[in-house]
Protein 1
Amino acid sequence: MKTQITRAPQIIRTVRMRMFARRLRVLWVKGLVRDEHWIGVDLGGTWVRVAVSDRSGHLMAKISERVDKSSAKAISDQMIRLTRFLCSKHGFGIKSLNGAGIAATGPLVQEKGVLIHPTAMPFDCVPITKPISEELGIPSCLINDAAGAALGEKMFGAAKGLDNYAYITISTGIGCGAIVNGTLLLGKDGNAHEVGHIVIDYEGRLKCGCGKRGHWEAYCSGSNIPNFIRMRLKDMPTRLVRESLLLKMAGGDLSRLSAIDLFAAAGKADNISARLVEEIGVLNSIGFANVINAYDPSLITVGGTVTLKNRAMILNPIKKHVKDYIINRISKIKVTPLGDNVGLYGAIAAALTYIS
Ligand SMILES: [Zn+2]
């Protein structure tokens, strides 16, 4: 009896929702309710991803390619071509698009919609929003990829309802986005929290892709981990290095080493590799501690290819060592639930925030 009484309002609500959905469908057929389609572009150092989404962040179609770095103009041309291809393949008219958000590797000038001396591309200036808006006839906006990911995590992921939150990516490079007291921090050009370039080694033993020395990214990003390995192996006994799986995986040539080789060897209990993974973890924990001390977030989510492919080996040493460097109360640290789509969600969230 009791069950019937409590279920009755639910049945009424369900019937009302079905009637409302039917009414919406009638309005849609009459053309009174328009579909909303948004383009999200995640421009990384290696890959460019494009997606079509609705307002709720449902990614309806997506595509990715290696970034065409043949010229500065080729980069926006590639995004335009991929957008047109995706819309045509899945039947979305270009006219149905409300706008495009582009979350890109920095540095950038957000207001002008351009990348300036991007660390992962050999160009002084890469125009993004102007060619996209002119060619596709839609408004567009640009945001730093990690700042966009923070916005995406707040709108669609683990940071819903949180006012103090940070996102850190460990990928080709290292980046961060921070929301403090509910506000996404951007800075004068949109390059706040370029934490990959904070100094973690005052001796500056390794040179960063940006040209400066001692930066976090120069030691722990996917593209620079091999430099860190080679530097450390020079200090180790030759016999140990010769016996290490690392040398075998690089085919006897340390110049061919990759970050993938290091984590694979550490996963097979190779002593030197496990030690280097732990050392990278200590350096990462210094970077994380700087973020916790600067922004005081209650949660940090972590993404990027290096993290997503080696979750325990990246996160465990950070959690173990970060407390040695923080003064603020520790944040929860976990892998982003948005996976490798976090950049796309960030681009869509930026479009919904800055265009609509
Ligand atoms: Zn740097």
Note: Confidence is low (pLDDT under 50) at residues 1-15, 24-33.
Protein 2
Amino acid sequence: MINGDSPTSDRQARADWIKVFLSNSYCKAEEKQQWSYYGRTNAKIMLDDGVTRSIEVLGSTYDLKSLHFHWGSPNNAGSEHILDGIHYDCEAHFVHKNERNGVAVIAVLYEKNAGINKAFNPIVDALPEIVYKGKRVSLPSQLHLQQLLTQDSENFYHYNGSLTTPECDETVSWFILKGINYIGKTQMAPFYKLRTVTETESHENCNLVNNYRLTQELNGRIVFSPK
Ligand SMILES: [Zn+2]
């Protein structure tokens, strides 16, 4: 849950104090870029291409380690954050760590629409290969992070909270980008087909859907925004 440890009256001062920026290499797509896709409960993409992608939070550098998604089901939205009362269809978490194992997460919200967001193509193309738990595959083409973020990546809400996945309960600096990105309806569909079981286990009623936790609603919480 959200840890509101700073008074709201300090909002502006705190907003000025928090300086976050993406390093120049953050969105770099290296030729040898290799992303591996694990069939875990949140479809995690580990970054292992040797490129350092970092953000700076209060003078501490956090390197991007992995990226994963939360989604709903064909008739249910699946974002973990609700912005202005809207529960969006999908949410990406860009997970960063600093030297002291502190965690900073950039969250991006996506709305389903009739278009195609090309940035999702490498991910969506790989989904049929990792339908079952424990599967892993390299993405078939380069992932362009810039297009998975929003155009103004410095326009965000910030609060300190915890990770929403059970394996991590350490304190996390959250940055929820205010701009809403999108994912095509047809691109979202393969996410709903992932299974929570291995290939040899029973497949009945085991689609990986609604893998979100609504513990991070921003309404009424103490949050900070630099803009
Ligand atoms: Zn997450």
Note: The chain is about 10% helix and 30% strand.
Protein 3
Amino acid sequence: MSENVEHIEVTTQIGCPVQCLRFCPQEVTAAKYFSDSGNAPYAKLSLENFRIMLATVPKSVQIVFSGFCEPFANPECIDLIEYAYNEGYTLRLYTTLYGATTSDVQRLIKIPFTTFNLHLCDGENTKIPLTDTYKDNVFTVLNTVPNLTFVQMNQLFKSNNRENITRNGITKKTKRGYCWKRDVPAMVLLPNGDLQLCCMDFALNYKIGNLLTESYADVRARYLKNKNKFELCNADCKIKISKLEHVFHTLITSYMNKRS
Ligand code: SF4
Ligand code: SF4
């Protein structure tokens, strides 16, 4: 299934303990979020608030557990996942399994994710204590998840340049090019209900709306109305491609679809 579909990326906690700081500007996100003292009670996403936030989100919008933190850093993560699944959403998961208990993983492997991406330790950038529980959990997932994919943040990892843009601001402007996220919203949900522009907004500079106080339809409409005005899209964001590349991909995809 294509990942270029409308979705919400769920950040279950602000401040990720895995600290892959070479590629992931965690410190900027936490400093910005907690600079507003009103956010102190919202360090973690609660099930109670998640229910309110999802209430107006159509089932056609995928729920992706990833966002700006390892999902299982929040001990309620498995409850959040089961809730979204039981509500009928299509789910994706990107996790290191840091913080997951044995019981969490036994519940987790019963959920059919369209993408289950396991971020493995790399001995350098990703700080995961190699406990027996962690190793057993990784082995359980390896043995049971049929569509498992992997990532490692080692020397071969290619980031989307978010660490530099987040830490240094937009130092180099590039052509806006084509980004599917400008046509198909893929906002990031924070524990306080804020919806941020996209997965590049680790600095939390582009709040589009809030799901504790507004409906998803209202926030979505505001996003689409302003989609060509976001300054962040002028940055050297590696997710966008040139318009020529986009036309080429579209033609190739359409040709291959006709042949199959
Ligand atoms: S686990 Fe993910 S969110 Fe956490 S620091 Fe590493 S890359 Fe960032
Ligand atoms: S910042 Fe990058 S990924 Fe986000 S909407 Fe703009 S071009 Fe797309």
Note: The first strand starts at residue 7 and ends at 10.
